[in-house]
Amino acid sequence: MTDSASTLPAPTQLDPLRISEDFPILASGPNTGERLAFLDSAASAMKPRQVIDSIVATYEGGYANVHRGVYHHAATATRHFEGAREKVRSFINATTPREVIFTRGTTEAINLVANSWGRTNLGPGDIVVTTELEHHSNLVPWQQVCAATGAELRFIPVDDTGVLVLDDLDALAEGGTLKLVTVVHVSNSLGTHAPLDLIVPWAKSHGALVMVDGAQSVPHRPVDVQALGIDFLAFSAHKLMGPSGVGALWGREELLAAMPPWQFGGEMIRRVEYSGATFNDLPWKFEAGTPAIAEVIGFGAALDYIESIGGIAAIAAHEQAMTAYGYELLAAIPGLHLLGPGPGEDRGGVLSFTMDGTHPHDVATLLDARDVNIRAGHHCTQPLMKRLGVHATARASVYAYTTREDLDRLADGLGEVRRVFGLA
Ligand code: 7TS
């Protein structure tokens, strides 16, 4: 299931109904009053009481701007803020908190690397390799920086099931200098898992750096940046039960130290004259302006919460079971086509599908009437949808609070959709 699964202790078993009690929003759906069968955590996860309480506690008992005040609340807020950085460091097994930069989320973390590292290190004759699976967040920034620098963007292809085809990687590095390989760890649209154990050594054999979009992996499976041997990792707090508006970029210290800041202003400077400025140390060099203080502290609370329910390996095991169960239920529905890797493969907890004679938006709308929430659309992967020959899919995704009954309600609801459309 994980890239370093053999070294991990057997995970404890999660009790999703017990866990659900921590999530006030799941108790009753707005349309039926029944439990909310929330199957859209890939877009954003729900928040446990522990995270909500952390945010309230910051504003009620320990709020002030960070890194500047000498008074009690300023010191408390700074301590909790930097404490969250240490929690993030530990969660991804980085060597030092100096390698953890708080950003607005995955998107901003990737833009940071594209604008700072990319504009400094890329030029004509250089190659950036990404994949056909990417979320627009790990595609458009590289299109932009390649256009600006003259570097070329190339793609690891997918097969018709959306699995990466690694047969001819070397051809992607021909005729130029491979500088960066940037890949989505787990696809948000299909659940495809990128085999980093193959991609990273290949990139390294060409002297290239590796960036990983961990938006859909860090919340769902153990991610150890040292074991993976990568150079940059981007992820968002809101997908791991933390607040929105905050996320992190992890980068290897020597790389971050050599990169120029990309946003300028307060916090990120050491000394300023009218004639110029020198910049702060890592990580603050990349954190211009007042950060999302309560949200960063809430991010730390979300990581504590994950530990408190059994840890990320237990979440991964639970999701694997829920995904296999959901896959089986959906595969039995006539006219329903599942996209992405099969149930037995190493995959994320995303079930993307189309149904003959229906549009994904109609499917999602009819399910909502039963308080079953799924996502419909292109999932910010328009080129991937085109590659697979679909305009949009319906997508159900699981998390720690997902129960078999949630997935049963999805399947029952899809039966009703077929009746409404005269298909059954
Ligand atoms: N990369 C991947 C793989 C994602 O799934 C997402 C968000 C992002 C990047 C961007 O993250 P952000 O927090 O900066 O917005 N994915 C989705 C989704 O699948 N549905 O809504 C957002």
Keywords:
424 residues, alpha/beta, Aspartate Aminotransferase, domain 2, 7-stranded mixed sheet, 4-stranded antiparallel sheet, 37% helix
CATH class of the largest domain: Alpha Beta
Strand content range: 15-25%
What is the name of the CATH topology of the largest domain?
A: Aspartate Aminotransferase, domain 2
Overall geometry? globular
Strand order within the widest sheet?
Answer: 2-8-7-6-5-3-4
The sequence of SSEs as H and E is HEHHEHEHEHEHEHEEHEEHHEEHEEHEH
Number of domains as seen in the coordinates: 2
**What is the CATH architecture assignment of the largest domain?**
3-Layer(aba) Sandwich
**What share of the residues lie within helices?**
25-40%
Summed over residues and divided by their number, the pLDDT gives a mean of: 96
Description:
The protein has 424 residues and is an alpha/beta fold. The protein folds into two domains: 10-39 and 311-420, Aspartate Aminotransferase, domain 1 (Alpha-Beta Complex), CATH 3.90.1150; 52-307, Type I PLP-dependent aspartate aminotransferase-like (Major domain) (Aspartate Aminotransferase, domain 2). It has 14 helices and 15 strands. It has helices at residues 16-20, 49-61, 72-91, 106-121, 140-149, 169-172, 196-205, 225-228, 253-258, 293-308, 312-331, 360-368, 382-388, 404-420, and strands at residues 37-38, 100-103, 126-131, 152-156, 177-184, 209-213, 232-236, 247-251, 269-273, 276-279, 336-339, 350-355, 372-373, 375-377, 393-397. The strands form four sheets. It has a seven-stranded mixed sheet with strand order 2-8-7-6-5-3-4, with helices on both faces. Strands 11-12-15-14 form a four-stranded antiparallel sheet, with helices on one face. It has a two-stranded parallel sheet with strand order 1-13. The chain binds ligand 7TS. Ligand 7TS binds at residues 42-43, 105-107, 135, 137-138, 184, 188, 213, 215-216, 236, 247, 375, 379-380.
